[in-house]
């Protein structure tokens, strides 16, 4: 230079040519995910050289445009890309960026898009779904799903081991755009130790305090979780009471607030009815009343139900068998039923006296003839009750004899 300084060292500048776009990745939220809390979103970035900045765009697709997040207002009221105000800078480092403080709205769907820029000025222009563009749904516990039980559907059932509760069934629901993730069911004894059924060991052994969560079994569905079933291997005891409990969980991890419970008594035993009058083996000369008693039964003698229906068959045994229908003798069988012919009380039953043979016509009963009365009771177990078979040993066979006896004097002889 003019001062006499000489440059004595040659320097060769190093320049990197970079024409490749960088790529930003999103780790949280997961693409297609459901969240009930989301304090921070985060991600990564890659480039063939280095990434300089990350910009974000978050769109609330559940509301009308403008519906992108504005860092200035903290609301979803900004225009979305390609408008420049739809982008805002991420925080953290470019390789592990984050952003926090966004207020999400329940049951809204969002799309998070991340854009990388490198020092060469290359700006990401392609935003691949599930990589740089992740949709998700935000759901709080206030939008938890609901679950219902269709079977069992009565307080007392007789089909728990046959066509009924071999398949427990029910429904589940959730408000869109939320989605159901699973329905689970467990069965509990409603008496004594209240153990839960163990789906692994196939017995009632799980303690209700410490092991209740082990009792859940995943239900099944054909189309979706809104209608579910569970094939049950539970060994039910006749006369015992059970609780069937169902719960649903959505994809955000929210369980139904209140589990659905149906309490049912398993009753597979028919009731027992007796014919009390006329007594079995008796001989009568008038028939003014026919009555009996009734009692429900279960296999273990517990949780007895009620016997609301009693039917009677009245058969003439001598000669050609015929049966009484409340008005006439006809071919067998003829069944007399409430309320016209039979009156049913709390623990007994009677044939309406006006419907007995002989009430209007004495010839309805034949002296010296044997008759048989048998009864059948039906209890209140759903769906149609347990029905007692006719012709049990508790019926009554009797003889009707209206002829007066004949006496004679053998000695002394008349006129002697």
Describe this structure in words.
With 416 residues, this protein is mainly beta. It is built from no helices and 30 strands. The radius of gyration is 42 Å and the shape is rod-shaped. The termini are far apart.
Write the element-wise H/E pattern from the N-terminal end onward: EEEEEEEEEEEEEEEEEEEEEEEEEEEEEE
| N→C terminal distance | 190 Å
Number of strands: 30
Mean residue pLDDT: 91
Structural class of the helices, strands and pairings?
mainly beta
* Inertia-based shape: rod-shaped
What's the short version?
By secondary structure, the protein is an all-beta fold. Helices cover 0% and strands 38% of the residues.
Any key phrases for this structure?
rod-shaped, six-stranded mixed sheet, 30 strands, five-stranded mixed sheet, 416 residues, 38% strand, mainly beta
List the helices and strands and how they pair.
Layout: E1 23-28, E2 33-35, E3 40-46, E4 53-60, E5 88-89, E6 91-93, E7 96-100, E8 108-117, E9 133-138, E10 146-151, E11 156-157, E12 167-173, E13 180-189, E14 196-198, E15 203-206, E16 217-218, E17 220-221, E18 227-231, E19 241-250, E20 260-266, E21 272-277, E22 283-284, E23 291-295, E24 307-316, E25 322-324, E26 329-330, E27 342-344, E28 348-351, E29 369-379, E30 396-400
Parallel strand pairs: 2-9, 11-20, 22-30
Antiparallel strand pairs: 1-3, 3-7, 4-5, 4-8, 6-7, 8-9, 10-12, 12-18, 13-16, 13-19, 14-15, 17-18, 19-20, 21-23, 23-28, 24-25, 24-29, 25-26, 27-28, 29-30
């Amino acid at each position: 230079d003019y001062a006499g300084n000489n440059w004595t060292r040659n320097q060769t500048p190093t320049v990197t040519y970079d024409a490749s776009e960088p790529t930003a990745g999103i780790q949280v939220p997961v693409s297609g995910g459901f969240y009930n809390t989301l304090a921070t979103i985060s991600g990564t970035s890659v480039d063939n050289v280095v990434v300089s900045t990350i910009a974000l765009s978050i769109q609330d697709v559940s509301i009308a445009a403008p519906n992108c997040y504005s860092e200035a207002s903290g609301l979803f009221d900004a225009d979305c890309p390609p408008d420049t105000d739809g982008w805002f800078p991420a925080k953290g480092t470019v390789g592990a960026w984050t952003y926090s403080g966004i207020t999400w709205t329940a049951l809204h769907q969002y799309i998070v898009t991340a854009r990388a820029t490198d020092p060469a000025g290359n700006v990401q222009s392609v935003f691949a779904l599930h990589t740089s563009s992740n949709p998700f749904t935000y759901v709080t516990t206030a939008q938890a799903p609901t679950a219902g039980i269709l079977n069992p559907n009565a307080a007392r059932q007789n089909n728990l081991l046959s066509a009924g509760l071999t398949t427990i069934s029910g429904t589940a629901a959730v408000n869109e755009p939320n989605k159901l993730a699973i329905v689970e069911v467990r069965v509990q004894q409603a008496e004594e130790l209240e153990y839960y059924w163990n789906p692994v060991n196939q017995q009632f052994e799980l303690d209700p305090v410490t092991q209740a969560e082990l009792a859940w079994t995943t239900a099944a569905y054909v189309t979706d979780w809104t209608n579910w079933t569970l094939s049950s291997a539970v060994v039910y005891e006749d006369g015992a009471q059970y609780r069937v409990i169902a719960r649903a969980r959505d994809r955000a991890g929210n369980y139904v607030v209140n589990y659905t419970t149906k309490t049912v008594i398993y009753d597979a035993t028919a009731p027992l009815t007796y014919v009390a009058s006329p007594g079995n083996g008796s001989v009568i000369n008038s028939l003014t009343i026919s009555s009996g008693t009734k009692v429900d039964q279960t296999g273990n003698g517990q949780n007895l139900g009620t016997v609301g229906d009693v039917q009677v068959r009245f058969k003439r045994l001598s000669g050609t068998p015929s049966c009484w229908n409340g008005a006439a003798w006809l071919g067998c069988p003829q069944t007399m039923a409430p309320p016209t012919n039979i009156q049913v009380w709390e623990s007994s039953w009677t044939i309406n006296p006006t419907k007995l043979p002989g009430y209007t016509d004495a010839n309805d009963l034949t002296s010296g003839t044997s008759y048989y009365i048998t009864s059948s009771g039906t209890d209140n177990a759903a769906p149609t009750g347990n029905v007692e078979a006719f012709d049990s040993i508790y019926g009554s066979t009797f003889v009707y004899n209206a002829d007066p006896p004949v006496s004679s004097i053998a000695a002394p002889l008349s006129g002697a």
